[in-house]
Automatic annotation (TrEMBL):
Modified residues (N6-(pyridoxal phosphate)lysine): 212
Transport is among the record's keywords: no
GO CC annotation, single: cytoplasm
Keywords of the record: Decarboxylase, Lyase, Pyridoxal phosphate
Entry's Gene Ontology BP terms: amino acid metabolic process; carboxylic acid metabolic process
Protein name: Aromatic-L-amino-acid decarboxylase
GO MF annotations, alphabetized: carboxy-lyase activity; pyridoxal phosphate binding
Amino acid sequence: MLGDLYATSISNPGFNWACGPACTELEAVVMDWAVRLFGLADHFLNSSEIGGGVIQTTASDSALVAIVAARSRYTTQRPSTKLEDLVIYTTTQTHSLGVKAGLVLGLKYRVLEVTAQDQFALRGETLRKALEEDRSRGKHPFVLVGTVGTTSSGAIDHLDEIGEVLKEYPSIWLHVDAAWAGVALACPEYREVAQLDNINQHADSFCTNFHKWGLVNFDASTLWVRNRKHLTDALDVTPEFLRTKQGDAGTVIDYRNWHLSLGRRFRSLKIWFVLRSYGVDGLRDYIRKGVELNQHFASLVRTSRDFSLVTEPSFALSVFRLSPALHLSLSSAQAEEALNELNRAYYSRLSSRPDIVLTQTVLNGTFCIRFAVGAARTTQMHVDRAWDVLREEAGVALKEWRVKDLQDKEKA
C-alpha cells in the first residue's frame, strides 16, 4: 500500500524511458528479481536482451498482449493466412481471458474438452486431435492458452505433453496463464507440480499475478516473453512526438511497446516494497502457510460423512460439496441433480452470512464450492471457525432437504 501511495503521488505516466527513468529501470530490475525468485529460465530476463518481463494490469491484459504477439508472429511467418482462419485454443477450464481475447480481436476460438478423470487438465492427445481436425479443415490454430492453476479447480495442464505436441507445430504460440498459482514457484518444493521445467522449455509467454497470491495490492500482473521482438514487432508504434535519442539508439526499454496502452502506472514500486519487506524467505513462508492451511481444511472435509472433495486440493484451493447418502431408488442422474439442488441451497445459505465468503463453480455439471486461503493473517483458527460455519449451515440445509425429500416421496 505504501508503494502504491508513493507511486500515485509521483503520477509518472511512464510511457517511455525519458519521461520516467526510475519507473522503467525499477520495473526491469524487479521483473528480473522475480525471474530468479520463481526459477524461470534466463531467456525471460530483461538483462538477457532476448526475452524479458513487463507488468500489466491483469492476467486478461497479459493474455491479450501475448495473443496479439502470437498473431503477429504467425501471420508474419505465413503471410497468406486469412485472419478469419485463425483460431485461439483454450479449454473448458481456462479463465475467460482466452475467449475474451478472441472477442476483442475478432478471432475464432475453440474450447477443448477436459475430463474429471484427468482432474480437468488438458492432455496432449486432446490437443493433437483438435489440431489435426482444424488443420484438415483449413483452419490455423496459432496460440494455445495453457493453465497452471485454473480458477475453478486449480487444475494444471500437462505442459510436458502439450510441449511435445507443439514441437510438431513450431509456429503455434504457448501462453501459460498461472494467474494465482504461479507465485507458488517461489517455493522450490512446489516447482515440479507447477510445471516449472516445462514452462521454461515450452512457454513463449508466462503470466502470474502478484496481486492474487503475492502480497501485492491490485493491480500487478507480471508477464514474461521468451522473445521480446515478437512483442515489440506487434505493438511498436512510435510517432515523432514519442521519439527520444535513448529509444532510437535501442539502449533502453520503452515499455509502451510491450502492452496496449501508452501511459502506464509505476507498478514496480509496490512489488519492490513487498520483496524488500518480506524477502524471499518471508514470501515463501506465507505461501507455504496457505498450502498447509488448505491441506488442513481438506483433511476436515475427508473425515466428514456429509462432505466430499470434488477434486484433489491444489496449492491453497479446495473444491468441495455436500454429499450425504442418497435414497437407493434414485438413478445416477437423479442423484446428481438432487445433490446439485442441495448444494445450491446450501451455498445460498452460506452467501447470506457476513462471516464467510466463498465462491461457487460448476465442474462437468457438478455444482460445487471453492475454499481458497490467501489472506496474510489467516491462521488455523480461522480455518477451523470456517469449518464450524460450514457444518452449522450444512446441518440446517440437510434437514430442510430431507424434509422436502420426504414430502416429495409422500406425494409420489
